[in-house]
């Protein structure tokens, strides 16, 4: 019986537990044996109890749980070959040669590297006497399948990542709460939202909450952004709006790209427009809580597809990543999706915003 392991890695996101549930149950339903690797790559390197056989009932109720119930961690040991050799040995010991990883682009890149290195790791296990030729006979290839779990919606090639709509929902709820107090006092709020180098959360929160102004990493403000923002906000105020909401994506200032910080915006609103202004950083609330219906559905459909991809893979099949495009669950080439994602991030870092915007447009046009 084929043994398939599932693991979550990198920053958690709502829906990851649902993805684990789907993989475990589809694995068992397909007549295979399911394993969960606890604590991300750390669990793969440490092995033992951290690579646990999973039964159908072990994942009962996981659809409505937040975060990832099998844990996630940043693992330095897996970055080095000796760590990956130990990980390969632990997998051989359990008889696992297929791994489904739910994480961001960094975690998925690590997984594909592991797959590429796998034959030489297996050889090394034999030459160093850790395993006999007989023991590794059936471990010629490692199957890797990626699921994208991230609140940032930052992977090229997919319309949505597992967690992004829950996070957006959380942001909208928080802004609704802020609206109530802002309205009462006629105040302005500058709200910082997450998203590392992707402005999707900020942009969609702006659209969904009717924000007055949004700062994104992909779209730096014009030279005269101060006048532009102030004139828009005063216009809104003159039209009778009692509150002002400005959203700043963390990537718009953390990486010093646009040099806009929430405090700068606050000072401007206070000093130039004389608005009583507060700054709110939403922080990890955005990654917490349970998954919304869309993320539960996405996690389940994609988890099922990931197991099918494992069972249909040949040694020649490049590692796939499970995406959603125009409401259809599809498989794409994992490393091509990662490459495109990195290109856009590099363009933003190099302040080539036009290219970055074209890259994002291409993603949507795809
Ligand atoms: O990538 C997901 C994310 O939540 C980003 O939006 C944010 O920049 C980062 O992780 C925060 O990471 P940490 O939890 O390590 O502070």
From TrEMBL:
Catalyzes the phosphorylation of D-fructose 6-phosphate to fructose 1,6-bisphosphate by ATP, the first committing step of glycolysis. Substrate binds at residues 150-152, 187, 194-196, 250, 278, 284-287. Mg(2+) binds at residue 105. ATP binds at residues 11, 74-75, 104-107. The active site is at residue 152. Residues 1-366 are annotated as: N-terminal catalytic PFK domain 1. Belongs to the phosphofructokinase type A (PFKA) family. ATP-dependent PFK group I subfamily. Eukaryotic two domain clade 'E' sub-subfamily. Homotetramer. Residues 3-310 form the Phosphofructokinase domain. Coiled coil: none annotated. It is found in: Cytoplasm. It comes from the Eukaryota. This is ATP-dependent 6-phosphofructokinase.
């Amino acid at each position: 019986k084929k043994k398939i392991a599932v693991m979550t890695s990198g920053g958690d996101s709502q829906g990851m537990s649902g993805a684990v549930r789907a993989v475990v149950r589809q694995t068992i339903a397909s007549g295979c044996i399911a394993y969960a690797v606890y604590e991300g790559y750390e669990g793969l390197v440490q092995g033992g109890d951290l690579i646990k056989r999973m039964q159908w009932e072990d994942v009962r109720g996981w659809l409505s749980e937040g975060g990832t119930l099998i844990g996630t961690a940043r693992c330095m040991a897996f970055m080095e070959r000796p760590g990956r050799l130990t990980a390969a040995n632990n997998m051989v010991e359990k008889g696992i040669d297929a791994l489904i990883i739910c994480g961001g682009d960094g975690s998925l890149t690590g997984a594909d590297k592991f797959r590429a290195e796998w034959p030489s790791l297996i050889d090394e296990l034999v030459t160093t006497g850790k395993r006999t030729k007989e023991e590794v006979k059936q471990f010629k290839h490692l199957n890797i399948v990626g699921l994208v779990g991230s609140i940032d919606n930052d992977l090229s090639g997919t319309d949505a990542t597992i967690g992004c709509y829950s996070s957006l929902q959380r942001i909208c709820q928080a802004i609704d709460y802020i609206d109530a107090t802002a309205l009462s006092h006629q105040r302005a709020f500058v709200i910082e939202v997450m998203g590392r180098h992707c402005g999707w959360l900020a942009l969609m929160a702006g659209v969904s909450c009717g924000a007055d102004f949004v700062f994104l990493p992909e779209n730096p403000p014009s030279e005269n952004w101060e006048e532009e923002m102030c004139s828009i906000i005063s216009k809104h105020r003159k039209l009778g709006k009692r509150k002002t909401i400005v959203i700043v994506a963390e990537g718009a200032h953390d990486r010093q790209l646009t040099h806009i910080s929430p405090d700068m915006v606050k000072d401007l609103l206070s000093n130039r427009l004389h608005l009583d202004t507060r700054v709110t950083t939403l922080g990890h609330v955005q990654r917490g809580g349970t998954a919304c219906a869309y993320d539960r559905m996405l996690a389940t459909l994609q988890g099922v597809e990931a197991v099918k991809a494992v069972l249909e893979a040949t040694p020649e099949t490049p590692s796939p990543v499970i995406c959603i495009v125009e409401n259809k669950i599809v498989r794409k080439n994992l490393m091509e999706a990662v490459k495109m994602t990195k290109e856009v991030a590099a363009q933003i870092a190099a302040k080539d915003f036009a290219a970055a915007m074209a890259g994002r447009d291409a993603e949507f046009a795809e």
